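Request: Show me your protein:
***
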Amino acid sequence: MSSETQPISAERFAFAIQDLPAENLYSKAHELENSIAHLERSNKTLQEYIDSIRSDTSLPESTRQEGDKDCSDAIQENTVVIERQKERIGLLKQEIERRGAKWHGGDMNGKANGSATEATSSSTAEPERNTGGRLTDEELRRQMMDRLGDDENDDEGDGMHL
């Protein structure tokens, strides 16, 4: 991160999101959860590399003890960013709840709604609800048909009327 550019404070972030539509708040939370997952994977990879240096007996003892300082620094920076992003997700949740709605965002552990572990296919008649602020294709189609009226059985077949 550049020394000239600093992230906005939590207070300014909370103020900035007050007028955003709820779907934007959920979208931002999903974006942050995705970023957290990537940073955590990166930290794991960096730590594995550091551990490999420390266990490499072909390297001098001083090198093994030190590990890789750049990787260690990157892990520390990523950890700070992860904590900041978790704080922002908390602020997004507070904003939704301030509006009187119920939060249905991610699980705050780097897994966003709609992940493979959560979005398993179901054989029930009711389609699974994706509650991460986004609709599945089937949900979108169903809602569009509800709003427009289901004209599939219409004999006219002359397109959508506005």
Remarks:
- The two ends are 49 Å apart (CA to CA).
- The chain has five helices and no strands.
- Residues 107-131 have pLDDT under 50 and may be disordered.
